[in-house]
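A quick aside before the break. I want you to see a complete sequence-to-structure record at least once, exactly as it would be stored in a machine-readable document. Don't worry about memorizing anything.
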Amino acid sequence: MGILEKMRLDGKKAFVTGGARGIGKCIAIALAEAGADVAIVDVDLEEAEKTAREIEAANHTKTIAVKTDITKPQEVDDMMARILEEFGRLDVAFCNAGIGHGVPVEDDNLADWDRVIQVNLNGTFLTAQAAGRQMIRQGGGSIINTASMSAHITNIPQKECSYAASKAGVIAMSRNMAVEWADKNVRVNTISPGYMATEMTLNDPGLVPLIGKWEEMIPVHRMGRPEELQAIAVYLAGDMSSYTTGADFRVDGAYTCF
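That is the input. The structure line, written in tokens, reads:
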């Protein structure tokens, strides 16, 4: 069997949170192209259903949409029940949903800080925990959590204290999960993207003026494309990465090298 065949995900069942658009949609497409059935998990059901239809039509794999607020434990439990009802098992969890809140520290308030932590850290915990419980029962699986280069550096010129704190927490949490579940054949890794040219970023009036500054600071002098995250996600989802757990993969154009 050649290397490309070994990278296939035929027969695997996956979910992607925040899968309706952006990085999540891009990874869901990659998993489906590699042969996996995928649940598009998002709080925006209409957009999730649209994405699911697009992916299923293009790849002829089973793709479903599941509306879920990942900060609510009962909704996460319901999400898992629906996925197991549709797929019968879970092999891959891409816990990706996240938000930002760029304000100076002195102007932040506890409610807004809490919201970022609730979605980015607590929501990732709840969905990864639910996936891990199922994977332990069935004998193994792969969990991939979206962190950020912001966990490793301080963003400038924008102010991202709560976002950076939440993503640093995702990395620490994922490493602990990886060690605790290593003997249960459940692998946990993180991907830390740099500045990515998603539709949201390219159309955000608060971020567009910063792109030129970012590109000056990025050693490769451009933002990344979401598609440039696909190969590492497929690798981590499949059996080729069976010895890879507790790792963080920075995909940032060398931004965090200095």
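Two observations worth writing down. The chain has one domain: 3-250. The beta strands are 13-17, 37-42, 63-67, 92-95, 141-146, 186-193, 248-251. We'll return to this after the break.
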